[in-house]
Write a structure and sequence with these properties.
Blueprint lengths: L10 H14 L11 H15 L1 H4 L2 H20 L4 E5 L6 H4 L7 E6 L1 H10 L8 E6 L5 H12 L5 E5 L8 H12 L4 E9 L1 H10 L1 H6 L20 E8 H7 L5 H4 L17 E8 L2
Parallel strand pairs: 1-2, 1-4, 2-3, 4-5
Antiparallel strand pairs: 5-7, 6-7
Helix pairs in contact: 1-2, 1-4, 4-11
Length: 283
């Protein structure tokens, strides 16, 4: 283990894989990821031991995984023939979910992280047409070229950015949205979102090791999901992680009491809120 528990943004993928492994090993698991423990590796376990605050939030990552699983299943059932997973990390959905064999699934992430995942999953067979694209998404020209190429290959594309945009600035998020919307066949975009209140709390609890790794938490728009209206997208569905976790019986008892109140859907900036947002084209 290095002096920094989290060395870079790719290490966060190993930490998240631990959450999926822990849930998958429960008798009453709400999803099963048989690859999560292998993908997390020793690195993921060490991060969880050395960043105590990380262990407090396992329930929210379980809710996020379940919610994105639901969005994927819903959009595939509605006719999506391609899923583009931006900053895919160690996600194993194209190996573990029930998906049509004809579905095109594209993982996009940094070269080293994708190479590690491919090595761990060597010998495993994806359930659909899987490919990975090594790309730094901060390279806006390269990502626009990629989106244009993918858009020509599909009729209805769903994009995911699970665990990505919180590390971007507002301008970067909006430009990403506009780049996605430039392709007419990109019909849906699923992402997670935090309120300014939750961002401030996370910066205090886990922000220091992330800043030291060059991956500070940044994005939490004051206007919540409505932010995307100026970026060519409109919110279709907004679900809080807390309400989702309560429904799944994963919310801690002291927090589950708050889940009895209506979901503000990210509209109250000072409130501690995180959720999943399914976006449709604004045109």
């Amino acid at each position: 283990m290095s002096s920094q528990p989290i060395r870079n943004i790719s290490d966060t993928a190993a930490m998240v894989a631990v959450y999926r492994a822990l849930e998958s090993e429960r008798d009453d698991a709400v999803f099963r990821d048989p690859f999560a423990r292998r993908l997390a590796g020793n690195r993921g376990e060490q991060i969880m031991k050395e960043v105590p605050a990380a262990r407090k939030h396992s329930w929210s990552y379980v809710a996020r995984t379940w919610l994105f699983d639901t969005y994927v299943a819903q959009e595939v059932a509605a006719g999506a023939d391609m899923v583009v997973n931006l900053a895919a990390g160690l996600d194993a959905r194209p190996y573990r979910m029930q998906l049509p064999a004809s579905l095109q699934w594209i993982d996009v992430d940094l070269p080293d992280l994708l190479a590690y995942k491919q090595d761990i999953l060597r010998g495993e067979k994806p359930v659909c047409k899987y490919e990975s694209v090594a790309l730094d998404l901060s390279n806006s020209s390269a990502r626009r070229d990629l989106f244009a190429s993918l858009g020509r290959r599909a009729k209805r594309v769903m994009t995911m950015s699970e665990g990505l945009i919180v590390y971007l600035t507002a301008d970067e998020v909006c430009q990403l949205g506009k780049d996605l919307a430039a392709q007419p066949n990109f019909q849906r975009w699923a992402t997670d979102l935090v309120s300014p209140g939750l961002l401030k709390m996370l910066q205090k609890q886990i922000g220091s090791p992330l800043r030291d790794a060059g991956a500070p938490l940044k994005f939490a728009p004051e206007n919540g999901p409505a932010f995307f209206l100026n970026c060519a997208w409109r919110p279709i569905d907004v679900q809080s992680m807390l309400h989702t976790a309560a429904k799944l019986k994963r919310a801690p008892f002291f927090l589950s009491l708050f889940a009895k109140f209506p979901d503000p859907k990210g509209t109250k900036p000072k409130q501690i809120w995180g959720g999943g947002v399914l976006l449709g084209r604004a045109d």
